Amino acid sequence: MRVDQPVRGIKVGRNDPCPCGSGKKFKRCCLATAEVVRPKVHPQKPKIRLKSAVDIVGIRRAGQLVVATLDLVESRIAPGIATDEINQWVHDYTIQNHGIPAPLNYRGFPKSVCVSINEVICHGIPGPQRLKDGDIVNIDVTTILDGYYADANKTFFVGEPGPEARKIVDVARQSLKEGIAMIRPGHSVGDIGWAIQAYAEGQGCSVVRDFVGHGVGFDFHEPPQIPHFGQRGDGARLVPGMVFTIEPMINLGGYDLIILDDQWTAVTKDGSLSAQFEQTILVTEEGSESLTPYPL
């Protein structure tokens, strides 16, 4: 074994700190089990890169920072808060904890977090708009830490929600749970979407088609795509080491949408409320593990 090991493109010497974050030297920690040449790939879909034990530790640490960031925002959300204030909280907290806010300048996105209110489905750009009592607001955080990406979001109530707000948030939350419950080796990507669609439509809601979940960990967006609708058995088979997001966007009305002139903000075409919950999920030998865990 060479003295200098390229772990996911990063050159790590035997006496360097282990990239898993343990504080130990690499030779006394993950050297023996590190996958040093290139990531393994899906046996049928070589564009899907599987994550090693070292990678999973790195993504999990990034995920812990993502969840802590969401917790910080949740503790401060209130009527009267400007969405740009939320952006500043996320940006500052991420930098203070040695992370990088992945959305900032990604394909021209101008802010460090997506903040989506009421009929905004996703990719809301923070600005001067202020939250009002009864709003629902989705906060979508993606963080890079030591080269690894993790991604999660939650929809929060602002003040006292009305019955429609309660319904769409509850259905979106349960939709994520339904999708996660389908993850185990041998199942397919299509099984996830089928379960979400069956549940959400059974509640009289719709599932957005234009945006889907995605592989994550080495980059912001990787193969495979994870539709939140579809047929059982379709798509790639799930194998241990796959890491991807499940992030169903659920509308109280129809699933059609409009992209605003800023070329980012997606809103429901019929003006109905939209909610979303997202976690980064690892396929394990036994089933799954959330790398961005929070209670659902």
Describe this structure in words.
- The chain is an alpha+beta fold and 296 residues long.
- It has 4 helices and 17 strands.
- The strands form 6 sheets. Strands 3, 4, 6 and 7 form a 4-stranded antiparallel β-sheet that branches.
- A hairpin with a 6-residue loop joins strand 13 and strand 14.
- Helix 1 packs across helix 2 and helix 3 runs antiparallel to helix 4.
- The longest helix has 24 residues.
- The chain is globular and about 55 Å long.
Descriptive terms for the model:
4-stranded antiparallel sheet; alpha+beta; 4 helices; disordered N terminus; single chain; 3-stranded antiparallel sheet; 296 residues
Category by helix and strand content:
alpha+beta
Could you tell me the mean pLDDT?
92
Report the strand count: 17
Oligomer: single chain
* Proportion of helical residues: 10-25%
Beta-strand percent range: 15-25%
Low-confidence parts lasting 5 or more residues at pLDDT below 50?
A: 1-10
Can you count the helices? 4
Shape: globular
Q: How does the major sheet shape up?
A: 4 strands, antiparallel
Order of helices and strands: EEHHEEEEEHHEEEEEEEEEE
> What does the radius of gyration come to?
19 Å
The separation of the N and C termini measures 44 Å
